[in-house]
Design brief:
Blueprint lengths: L2 H25 L5 H26 L9 H10 L5 H22 L7 E3 L8 E3 L1 H13 L4 E9 L2 E8 L4 H19 L6 E7 L3
Parallel strand pairs: 4-5
Antiparallel strand pairs: 1-2, 3-4
Helix pairs in contact: 5-6
Pfam family, one: DUF6286
Protein name: DUF6286 domain-containing protein
Keywords: Membrane, Transmembrane, Transmembrane helix
C-alpha cells in the first residue's frame, strides 16, 4: 500500500467517523408531529374550502360558505392604514413566525443518539433508559447504598445515599463513575454531571 493510499484511507475513515454523529442526530431528531398535523389540517381545510367555492361559482351556484361578497366589500372600503387591516396583517405575521419558530426549535428528544463503530449503524437509547444506566453505575460505587439519576437536556443529576461521613469524596467518586459510564455509552451529545450525596446526620 502506497503512502497516498494510506492517506486517502485515513481521510476517508475520518470523514465516515465525522458523518456518523450527524447521521445519528438526523435520525433521532425530534419530530414536531402535533404542530405539523394542526398546520396540515388547517391548510387542507382552506384548500378544500377554496376549491369548493371556485367550483360552485363556475357552475353558477356559489356555495357562500365563506361570505365572499362581504369580504370583497370590506376589502374595497378598507385601506392598508386601517386598524383592522394592520391588525389582520400583524396577526398573520405572528402566526407565521410562530410556525417557523416551532419548526426551528427542536422538541424534547425521545432517543439519545450514540456513537458506533459501524458507519452504517445508527444506535440510540431513550433518556429514561440512559438515566437508569447512569443510576446503576452510580449505585455500584463502593459505599453507595442507593442512587438515582435524572437526565434533563444535556445535564445529568445524580442523587445518592451513603452511610459514610465524607460527602465530598463520595460525590467525586459518584461523578467519576457516571462520567465513565457516559464515556462507555458514547452519546453524540456532551453531558455535564452533577452528583449529590446524602450522608448520615
Amino acid at each position: 500500500m502506497t503512502e497516498d493510499t494510506r492517506l486517502r484511507d485515513t481521510a476517508g475513515s475520518a470523514a465516515r467517523t465525522a458523518a456518523r454523529p450527524r447521521a445519528a442526530v438526523r435520525a433521532f431528531r425530534p419530530r414536531r408531529t402535533i404542530p405539523a398535523m394542526i398546520a396540515s389540517i388547517a391548510l387542507l381545510a382552506a384548500g378544500v374550502l377554496t376549491a369548493l367555492e371556485v367550483i360552485m361559482a363556475l357552475w353558477g351556484r356559489p356555495a357562500q360558505i365563506v361570505p365572499i361578497d362581504d369580504l370583497n366589500r370590506w376589502a374595497a372600503a378598507t385601506t392598508w392604514q386601517d386598524r383592522a387591516a394592520l391588525g389582520s396583517a400583524g396577526l398573520a405575521t405572528l402566526l407565521g413566525l410562530l410556525l417557523l419558530l416551532i419548526a426551528w426549535v427542536a422538541g424534547r428528544p425521545r432517543v439519545v443518539a450514540l456513537r458506533t463503530d459501524d458507519p452504517d449503524l445508527v444506535a440510540g437509547v431513550s433518556p429514561r433508559m440512559l438515566a437508569n444506566l447512569l443510576g446503576d453505575a452510580a449505585g455500584r460505587v463502593d459505599g453507595v447504598r442507593r442512587a438515582r439519576a435524572k437526565v434533563r437536556g444535556r445535564h445529568v443529576t445524580v442523587q445518592a445515599t451513603t452511610d459514610l461521613r465524607d460527602a465530598a469524596e463520595m460525590e467525586e467518586r459518584v461523578r467519576a463513575a457516571v462520567e465513565r459510564e457516559i464515556a462507555t455509552l458514547a452519546p453524540v451529545a456532551r453531558y455535564t454531571v452533577r452528583a449529590r450525596v446524602r450522608t448520615p446526620r
